[in-house]
Each structure stands twice: as C-alpha cells, then as structure tokens.
Amino acid sequence: MTDELSTDLPAFDLLDLEPVDGATTYRMPASTRLCTPFGFLYGGSGIAASAEASERATGRPLQWITTQFLGSPSPGDVIDLHVNVAVTGRASSQTQVSGTVDGALMFTSLSAHNVRPAGDETAFSTMPDVPAPLDCPDFAEPFHVDPPDSFFSTLERRVAAGTIRFDTPLGDGDVQPGLIAMWCRLVDSDIGSAATQAYVADLGPLAVCARLGRPLGGTSLDNTLRIVDPTPTDWVLLELDADGLHRSVGHSTVKIWSQDGRPLGIAQQSAILRTSHHQPPANA
C-alpha cells in the first residue's frame, strides 16, 4: 500500500519482525528479551510490533496508535501480525492490526499515519529541569528479577526526579508528592521512531505504584501513544504522571522528551494493578 508519498522508515531490530505474506502480514518471535521476567510478553513489545508492522504496510510514519490487550503471549510463542489498511488518503492512512498466537487473538491496535510536510514544529510545554542522565542514580527494580534476560536487560534507566521506592509503603490514602521522571535509553538503538517510543513508554503503572509506595505490577488494558516528533535521540526523559486509581485499575500519562528538550510523544495507559506475580528482591 506504499506510494510516492512514502518515506524511509527506521526498523527496530530488537523486534526481529519478519514479513510473511506481502506487505500486510508479519511474524515476531516472543523472545525472552521482549518479555517480562514473569513469563509474558512486555506490553511495549506488542505495541512496538503493531506500530512497525503498520508503518511497513502503509509506507508512512505513524502518528497515533492505541492498543487493547486481550491475552498474554508467553516466551517462545510466535506472534502473527495482520495489518488491515482501512483507509488511504493523499497524506494519511488508518489501519487495524491484530496480533495472534496459533489463531488466538492477543492484542489489537488502531493507528493513524501522516506524511504531511514538517517545518511547523511548536512546543507548548517545557521539559522538567532535571540533572543529566549520567548524574542520576540507576533505577532499582522493586521486585525479584528471574530470569535476568528480559526486557529489563534492553534498557538503561536512571531516576531523574522524585521517589521511586517501595520499602516504606504509605498508609491508605497517602501518596508520594512531586515530579517523577526517569531517564531511559535502549542498549542497541536510538529512540525516536514510533516503535521505539512505544517500547520505552510502557511504564505508566510504575507512576501509580510510585505514588502509592507499593511494588505492584501492572497488566495493561490499553495503551495509547501519540507521536509528536520522531527525530532520534540517545536518552529520553520519561515524565511519569499518575492520573488516578479506582477498582484496582490505575490510569497514567507518560510524556517523552529528548535530551535536548524536544517533546517526542505522549503515552496514556490503563492497567490492572496486582501483586500476584511479583516477589520482593532477595535482599529486601
């Protein structure tokens, strides 16, 4: 479905996404590096795969994607992605993506693509003033990580602002105040494309857990990503905002900033918060 308005689109090699049948069907192995330590696909991996498959099918950069999670692929599964290019206009396209394992639906995505010319960039907010990445402490995972080869190993994360600790849980109704922000970079890739932004920004539940001071995990119900600027950068600042919690479902927003202060994207997420698959660190 590509045309003369197509642009060269970057590939996120970590996904190992392979075409199967023409330009609309792809396959991705759920390697351990794309999964959580708890035995299921990391949500950011699924969103990233949908984003890249949709870009390849349309030949156009992604502007917006929303993903609903219906199941949890396991390490070793093979995920088939089918892209239905629903609408193609002169400068925009819209698609529907389904991710299945052995015919069972795991996640679905809707996306919009845009090839209108750049040059009208304007920022309406300012990146928080935080120390440089290498001046910030490493982020320590709040729970036991086994096996170690998970999506955690593909990221370097450093706490830029706020308290992300869970060893002194707050009382009911209490929250930790102030800005929460984290520097993040990928071990083997710059961040900027829709797929890479989707991969690093699937951290909304962490904002809710940090506010509560409780080491809860999140099972995503949905995740929406809006791309502002896909220009690649090494480090990104993730500004984490917990929006609310009700009936064990936490809602959050993540603003993605380049190291030089450009707004790259905005992710919004709803996730069920639970402790069933988490264990505290051995030295806790």
TrEMBL record:
UniProt xrefs under Pfam families: 4HBT_3C
Domain of life: Bacteria
Signal peptide residues on this chain, from the entry's feature table: none
Chain ranges of the Acyl-CoA thioesterase-like C-terminal domain: 135-272
InterPro entries: ACOT8-like_C (IPR049450), Acyl-CoA_hotdog (IPR042171), HotDog_dom_sf (IPR029069)
CDD domains linked to this entry: Thioesterase_II (cd00556)
Name recorded for this polypeptide: Acyl-CoA thioesterase-like C-terminal domain-containing protein
Native source organism of the sequence: Ilumatobacter coccineus (strain NBRC 103263 / KCTC 29153 / YM16-304)
